[in-house]
Amino acid sequence: MTDTADTTTILTTRRGHVLIVTINRPEARNAVNAAVHIGVGTALEEAENDADIRAVVITGAGDKSFCAGADLVALSRGESLYPDDPAQQAWGFAGMVSHPISKPIIAAVNGFAFGGGCEIALMSDIIVAADHAQFGLPEVKVGLFAAAGGAFRLTQQLPKKLAMEYMLTGDPIPAARAAAFGLVNHVVPLAELMPTALALAEKIAANAPLSVQASKRVALGIQDGRIAADAPYWEHNAIERSALMRSEDAREGPRAFAEKRKPEWKAR
């Protein structure tokens, strides 16, 4: 039996023991704003606290973009991408990147996953990608850096030299190449994306739920809703982000993006 709850920005659908979470901003390439942060984070809390949910599938609306990352247009207008509630802020970008839960998360990547979209995928446990999907951390092209976990997770999940090349150039990683190096589990035609992701989620959900959850917590080192090994990375991340966001270049990048022009870097 399928039960659907429809909201404007985030769509959540229950299919048996699986919760499907869809970022529903196709007109903005499913970019993350504060509403997406709250919606995704709330859905993960629902999944964690509901014993009937045994797996989560996260995807984006449409067939072009899984998630384009931070909403740079909103950022250029001075809007915050984070909610006011400190407890919700603690979930990290998109309500997810520092919000580990015990329930397995499968990313069904239906298009490009750039910037924060790639970081959402990196935070997922399993990735199923459409064959036209691409991954990437292009923050260096807009005066930012992959501060939502990408700067350390990409080097953990790809061979280091390869990760460094993609992170420092900001170039995209095609789904097939990502799969060849173990970043992606399955690459399928778009029409088979959700059926494949759901079949995998249902296979996991058929196993003993407490055993699955304990396995994930031990594998990732999750204790009290945090991954202890990530703490030093987040501390360093915060220092670097604070310094970078005070720079002229960090203001110039999103402004140039919004104005559709080439940025003028000053290294200050």
Overall description:
This protein is an alpha/beta fold and 268 residues long. The chain is built from eleven helices and 13 strands. The strands form three sheets. The protein has a seven-stranded mixed sheet, sandwiched between helices. Strands 5-7-9-10 form a four-stranded mixed sheet. A hairpin with a 2-residue loop joins β12 and β13. α4 crosses α5. The longest helix has 16 residues. It is globular. It starts with a strand and ends in a 10-residue tail after the last helix.
Short descriptors:
268 residues, alpha/beta, four-stranded mixed beta sheet, 13 strands, disordered N terminus
Helix amount: 40-55%
Radius of gyration: 18 Å
**Assembly annotation:** single chain
Helices and strands, in N-to-C order? EEEHEEHHEEHEEHHEHEHHEEHH
Strand order in the sheet with the most strands: 1-2-3-4-6-8-11
Biggest sheet character: 7 strands, mixed
How many extended strands? 13
For the terminal residues, how far apart are their CA atoms? Answer: 57 Å
List the helices and strands and how they pair.
Elements: E1 2-6, E2 10-15, E3 18-23, H1 34-49, E4 55-60, E5 65-67, H2 72-76, H3 86-89, E6 105-109, E7 112-114, H4 116-123, E8 126-130, E9 134-136, H5 150-157, H6 160-169, E10 173-174, H7 175-180, E11 186-188, H8 193-205, H9 209-220, E12 222-223, E13 226-227, H10 231-245, H11 248-258
Helix pairs in contact: 4-5, 5-6
Task: Write a compact overview of the structure shown.
The chain is α/β, with parallel strands linked by helices and 268 residues long. It has eleven helices and 13 strands. It has helices at residues 34-49, 72-76, 86-89, 116-123, 150-157, 160-169, 175-180, 193-205, 209-220, 231-245, 248-258, and strands spanning 2-6, 10-15, 18-23, 55-60, 65-67, 105-109, 112-114, 126-130, 134-136, 173-174, 186-188, 222-223, 226-227.
